Structure to design on (226 residues):
C-alpha cells in the first residue's frame, strides 16, 4: 500500500511570494489533515477535511492560507503572501475512518524556507 | 486549555531502557498516542492506549497511563541506536476528532 505522498519536498521562497503544496493521501482514506510543524515544536493542525468538506479550520490563518480537497482525494495548501514566520515543515496526514481517534498516516512533509 | 508537555531531550546508552514522560491537560482524552519521527520523515505511530487502560505492552514498548495525574510514559526496553529519533506524545480530544501533539522528546542513544 502506497503511503501519503507530498510534493515538493523542499521549497525556498522570498517573503510576500506565493507557494502551494500538494498531498495525495492513502487510497480510500476519508480524512485528510494539514499540519504545520515549526522547528522544535510538535505538529499543529491547520485544517482537517472529511472527504471534500472542511471539519476544522479554526487554526488556519485564513488571510493568507487556503486549502482545498477537490473530489475528496488530493489536496493543495496555499500560502499567499508568505511571511518569514511561515518557515516550517508542512505535514499532510490521512485517516481511513471518520477521523475519530485512530492512527494518522503522515507523509514526509514539505520543508518551506521563507527568506 | 489543551496542552501536552514533554521533556525535550533524553540520552541513554545502547542496551539500557529509555523512559519518555508526558503530561496532558484534557481529562476527556479518549486515546493517547506515541509517535516517532526520524530525520526528514513524517510521524509514524508507535503505539496508542485507550483512556480506560492503565498499561499496554507491545514487544519492547510499554505504555503506562496515570489518568488521575494525567501522565503518560513510554518505556523502550533494550534501546538500540536505531531508536534515536524524536518521540511525540499526543492526545485525542473533542470526542476523538482532534489530536494535540507535544513538542517532542529527542532521544539520543549512545553506542
Amino acid at each position: 500500500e502506497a503511503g501519503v505522498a507530498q510534493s515538493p519536498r523542499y521549497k525556498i521562497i522570498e517573503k510576500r511570494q506565493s507557494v502551494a503544496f500538494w498531498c495525495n493521501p492513502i487510497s480510500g482514506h476519508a480524512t485528510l489533515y494539514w499540519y504545520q510543524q515549526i522547528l522544535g515544536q510538535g505538529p499543529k493542525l491547520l485544517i482537517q477535511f472529511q472527504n471534500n468538506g472542511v471539519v476544522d479550520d479554526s487554526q488556519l490563518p485564513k488571510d493568507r492560507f487556503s486549502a482545498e480537497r477537490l473530489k475528496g482525494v488530493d489536496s493543495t495548501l496555499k500560502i499567499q503572501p508568505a511571511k518569514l514566520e511561515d518557515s516550517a515543515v508542512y505535514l499532510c496526514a490521512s485517516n481511513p475512518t471518520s477521523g475519530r481517534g485512530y492512527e494518522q498516516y503522515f507523509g514526509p512533509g514539505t520543508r518551506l524556507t521563507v527568506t | 486549555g489543551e496542552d501536552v508537555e514533554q521533556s525535550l531531550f533524553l540520552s541513554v546508552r545502547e542496551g539500557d531502557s529509555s523512559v519518555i514522560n508526558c503530561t496532558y491537560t484534557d481529562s476527556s482524552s479518549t486515546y493517547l498516542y506515541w509517535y516517532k519521527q526520524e530525520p526528514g520523515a513524517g510521524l509514524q505511530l508507535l503505539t496508542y492506549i485507550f483512556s480506560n487502560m492503565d498499561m499496554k505492552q507491545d514487544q519492547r514498548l510499554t505504555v503506562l497511563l496515570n489518568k488521575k495525574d494525567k501522565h503518560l510514559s513510554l518505556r523502550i526496553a533494550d534501546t538500540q541506536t536505531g531508536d534515536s529519533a524524536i518521540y511525540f506524545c499526543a492526545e485525542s480530544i473533542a470526542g476523538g476528532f482532534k489530536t494535540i501533539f507535544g513538542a517532542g522528546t529527542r532521544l539520543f542513544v549512545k553506542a
Observations:
- The CA atoms of residues 54 and 95 of chain A lie 14 Å apart.
- The mean pLDDT of chain A is 92.
- The radius of gyration of chain A is 13 Å.
- The interface with chain B takes residues 4, 40-45, 48, 55-56, 91, 93, 99-104, 106-109 of chain A (CB under 8 Å).
